[in-house]
Amino acid sequence: MTLDIFIALAGFALVTVITPGPNNLMLMTSGANFGFRRSIPHMIGVGLGFPLMIVPVGLGVMQVFDMWPVSYTVLKVASVLYMLWLAWKIANAAPPKDAPDGAGTPLSFLQAAAFQWVNPKAWSMALGAITLYATGRDLAAILWVACTYVAMGCISTTSWTILGQQLRRLLNRPARLRIFNGAMALLLVASLVPVVLP
Predict the structure, then answer these.
(1) 13, 82 in Cβ contact below 8 A?
(2) Half-sphere exposure at residue 125, Cβ-oriented, CA atoms within 13 angstroms
(3) Closest CA to 99 of 174, 32, 26
(4) Domain extent listing, the chain
């Protein structure tokens, strides 16, 4: 991979990971509700989960969808249902001090990593990155794309979680935090509009 193509890839990766989407809204919400330190497993799950998704997508998972077109519909329905469930959980999250024991925990590493497989934006990003920057689908090019997303993901996950943590100062009253969580849930649902509408 030449330097100019790598710079283009890095710019593409940064723009796609740092723009608002389900991962970033959930990281900001986690930062606001649980703080930076408790959100680290969630951050790492997003930061590594998406690049780890790129590798099998680039190596041929998309051929499965091409062979069985109905699988696109199944993936879309599963993604929408899961994200609606997450939006409901966010909207109904109790402030940490009001939550019963065992409730109100941020996403774990595995939950955040697994979420990438039902995140419509992640699928769009993976397909776009592979199509543009690993056109030959060779392992070296796919790994370049994945590693670039690891680096850019660090910037994005940290930024969105810190933004949420800073908002925590404004959300120091339960009523404000509930309004914030409701707004984040609505934005998460709104992010599904491009997926649902043709």
Answers:
(1) no
(2) 34
(3) 174
(4) 23-97+107-193
